[in-house]
Amino acid sequence: MGKEDQQRLTNLPWHVPMEEWPEHGVIPLTIRRGESRHPVIFVELEGTRYAIKETTPHMAEREVKNLREIENRGIPVLSAVGSITVTVPPLLLDEHGPGGRPQYTSGDRGYTVTRLTPRVIPHSLLFRLHLPKERNSAFWEP
Prior knowledge:
This protein is of the alpha+beta class. The chain has one domain (3-140). Helices cover 19% and strands 25% of the residues. It has three helices and six strands; from the N terminus they run H-E-E-H-E-E-E-E-H. The strands form two sheets. It has a four-stranded antiparallel beta sheet with strand order 1-2-6-3. Strands 4-5 form a two-stranded antiparallel sheet.
């Protein structure tokens, strides 16, 4: 992520789940958006508009790699800025897991940060395109 983007994004309330951001002073932009299984917020910071999606750290990193690869192929997509990982305490899954021990999962959150651009292909259409497996890219990672 570039230094200017880091500086713009640093004061967002990364320590709380995205649905609580408006309660922490983040004013979301009202922008027509496609479908997403994950929370997404649009914000404008110092004249730059961003789309930020909350997901897992692994998926955030993977999506950024995929978007960069697609953009390198000349296809209009959201411009990937980078991914952010927020480390939080593990979440209790089962108090009486295997062997009577508590079972936990990672509570870490990942965020995909993209810069909004005037024209992009919606993700719902993008992933229907047939793209050749060239350049041994991250786009084709399982």
